[in-house]
Amino acid sequence: MKILVQKFGGTSVATRETRLKAVEHIEDALAKDFHVVVVVSAMGRRGDPYATDTLLNVVDASDPVAPRDLDILMSCGEAISAVVFASQLRSRGHQVTVLSGGQAGIRTNAQHGNARILEIRPKRILDALQEGHIVVVMGFQGESPEGDITTLGRGGSDTTATALGVALNAEYVDIFTDVEGIMTADPRIVEDARMIHRVTYTEICNLAYQGAKVIHPRAVEIAMQKNIPIRVRSTQSKDEGTLVTNAWTVLESSVLQDRYVTGVTQTANITQIQVEGEGVGRLNIFDLMAEHGISVDFISVSPDRIAYTVADADADRAVSLLREQGLEPRIRPDCAKVSVVGTYTGMPGIMARIVEALSSEGISILQSADSHNTIWCLVRRSEMEAAVRALHSKFGLGEANRD
Ligand code: ADP
Ligand code: MG
Fold first, then answer.
1. Residue nearest to atom 6 of ligand 1 (CA)
2. Ligand 1 atom with least separation from CA of 177
3. Which alpha helices (H) appear in 116-216, and where do they start and end?
4. Each residue's pLDDT tens digit, 278-289
5. Protein residues whose CB sits closer than 6 Å to any atom of ligand 1
6. Could you tell me which of 113, 119, 120, 118 has the C-alpha nearest to residue 75?
7. Which residue ranges does the record assign to the Aspartate/glutamate/uridylate kinase domain (predicted)?
8. Is residue 152 within 8 Å of 159, Cβ to Cβ?
9. Domains plus CATH for the chain?
10. Percent of the chain at pLDDT above 90?
């Protein structure tokens, strides 16, 4: 059985018109003899009536909600979306089976709000496909060992799609969204961002981990384990978008010998924390942060100074924890991280070009760090967009026909 998993994001299922485009993609696949499993996100974006964020606000902010209850509430967005989508498919004469995450066999741990998939038992999906049905699965959700509804955290529907792709040994997992594919930078910031037609799992994972939210990195990692190719594409167009696959296929396509920078990404809303004083480098304040579930980044430790960043939302908590230790941290809120992501960013001269690009725009680098494939710079939030554009242009990423 040739199986295709097609995931449609929030904007793709938002209205009857956009859903019609989605249906046409499904019909194209059926015409090519694929059995189709559809994964849907909640309809629309923040502010729309049945979007996840809207559902969260249904409960009065001052009332306590149990994490288990919150998952029940949040999973409704995909339930509504799946039923609406299935009805529109039926109106075109298709036979459809709608399944919740649990009914689709997605077993997770019990970590409500950010559950991990443990196992998928796809029997019910396979039976329905066998009978010629299109199966519509509610994205972003699974079922705990106790039989409770769980949700998979940010980008959860992407994860549902690739995990099903692996469990069903699909030919492809299609991630349909509101852009043509994966680009060298967020097209909302960089006007001449270029489409990346072919890319490796690793490159895309790096981009996604550094903030390119077009696909969730966990979803990419899952597909990579079994080499299931992903296509990131636009619901509005017939183009095949970006093909994400293993290194071999990408390199074979001749292309990218000189592509050492894949793209530029950004993450906003970061606070920089610095602690100075004789011997502070020996204090283990990172244990303290970890104990309180505060994730830290940009760590730089020297004997008399520690600097690191946290999400703006965690900053107050981090600061009070440090004060309780008798420390007087210096705080710089409203920062952003811009990253130059690639395959060979360890190459000499890259940092020099980054410094050149940013200083020519009058942007100061507040802190920087690097690994073998990424260089990160901390900048002021107000300068984030300018920094992304300057770096994108410095590395010539907008030029046409690079691949
Ligand atoms: P969906 O609801 O379909 O999952 P998302 O909002 O999660 O859609 O992802 C699509 C968005 O990702 C685009 O609208 C775009 O602004 C953003 N984006 C960020 N970085 C990139 C990138 N490098 N390439 C393409 N899109 C990007
Ligand atoms: Mg998304």
1. 214
2. 3
3. 123-130, 156-167, 201-209
4. 988 888 899 999
5. 9-12, 41, 177-179, 182-183, 185-188, 212-214, 263
6. 113
7. 2-234
8. yes
9. 3-178 (3.40.1160.10)
10. 83
